[in-house]
Amino acid sequence: MDRGVQQIVTPQGDVLVVMPLAHFERLSAAAGMFIFSDERDAEAVPAEVRVAIDEGESPLAAWRRYRAISQSALARESGVSRFTIMRIEAAGAGAGNRQSRKLLAAALDIPVSAI
């Protein structure tokens, strides 16, 4: 186990991991997770996208609208079916499989972690 990383086993048998924040941030970045650790990170997301997400729109829909692209056009551009795009938009952040999110993110020119 890495230095500074601890495992805790709960009474229910769940294994929890405690680690230094810097280590977690490196792992999160490598995994493509989208974490607003401070205001500088939040500034990287356009205000229109942040507001739409805060108002309940899915991240994928917010970015798609910001880029002014229809679901059909995004489907053609990404190779992901329109039905899948509709399902991901309806389900919200982190929905869909990793490959679909990767293709959609590439088509929208955003990090996978943003959707």
TrEMBL record:
Residues 60-115 form the HTH cro/C1-type domain. Gene3D superfamilies: lambda repressor-like DNA-binding domains. This is Helix-turn-helix domain-containing protein. Coiled coil: none annotated.
